[in-house]
Amino acid sequence: MTSPFHRRPVPDYLISSPLVALLYPLHQLLLHLRGPPRLPPPDTRPIRVVCISDTHTLEWPDVPDGDLLIHAGDLCNDGSVREIQAAVDWLKTLPHPNKVVICGNHDSYFDARSRCEEDRDEEGTSFAAISSTASIHSLDDLTAASQIDWGDIHYLQHSAVTLTFPPSSSTSSTTALMSSQPRSLNIYGAPQIPAIVSFGPEHAFTYPPHNDAWSRTVPPETDILITHTPPQSHLDLSPIYSTGCPNLLAESWRIRPALHVFGHVHESAGREPVFWDDAQRAWERLCANRRHRAQFGRFTSLAGFLRDLFDPAGWIDAARVVVYGVLGVIWSQIWGGENGAGGWMVNAACMYRDSGQLKNPPQVIEL
After folding, report:
1. Which pLDDT does position 272 carry in this prediction?
2. How far apart are the C-alpha atoms of 192 and 311, rounded to whole Å?
3. pTM value?
4. pLDDT (average), residues 4-18
5. By the 8 A CB rule, do 71 and 263 touch?
6. Of 15, 23, 1, whose CA–CA distance to 233 is shortest?
7. Of 50, 51, 109, residue with least CA distance to 228
8. CA distances (Å), origin 51, targets 134, 270, 363
9. What is the DSSP string of 63-79?
10. Could you tell me the CATH superfamily of domain 36-168+178-274+335-366?
11. Confidence class of residue 133 from pLDDT cuts 50, 70 and 90?
């Protein structure tokens, strides 16, 4: 059976739901025609955020410069302290003044249930507890985090940090006026992923896919949300063959962060604007209502055409996606309105499929 983390052939999408398969490119076009979902506050210097994930012991050769570097998990493969420390040592060499890291399901040392045999005897490890110059927050296992020499990296595990970014040092009077005030961002990170396949015990922070591991866990003041799993319906192989978490999506709606960074699903790397509006709700409803079809074989999925044909609620939602999307384009591009309350979804996975090579470039967002 095809892995749920692999993209299906285009005919599979058309067979399972021709309505959403044909609507998807139009929905994406309307999203991008609306322009940036959020602009930096007026009279401030934009904060350049560089996002990477799923490097799996490898090193991207030329990470773009920025004010903040985010790694959204899967630093390594076997989850040992040895491999994690090697990845952290590489991140410490990068010039970004602020760095934030969470772990992923392959970084198993941080989950006592999944720890490698070589790391189970803490007294035998060659990595002594080292205090970091960054804030290390974890509600689960402060001791595990302290076995890594993080340097100036902020490690988050079900925890948050507030970072302050200084104003520009430019001598230009215009730039100095625009950048005279420092800015702060509240960042929350959590590693848990839904076990939509039979992950082995070596995979960390897994939870049954029908369990709610997210509701009311993220602080409401969060500006940047970092998770390893994607939310459902966004950069998770949707529509239909979604691997994201619906409860994380609901939590994202509650928080509405300016930026949500994740990885895990290598084949959906990229970025997507979100506007938290009726068009988005309608699209997510269409995806959720068709997610159960992913379990069907191709022959059984042939009924998807008939199900779509006699689904008035689906056609109404499809109309909402188009109408509200077009109105959003008119508002921003013709009337000159600003998109002030949206945000970005970023799948920052650098690993290209399961190739063992980093081919998906880092994502750069300005906030």
Report:
1. 97
2. 35
3. 0.90
4. 85
5. no
6. 23
7. 51
8. 19, 10, 5
9. PPP-SEEEE-S---SS-
10. Metallo-dependent phosphatases (3.60.21.10)
11. very low
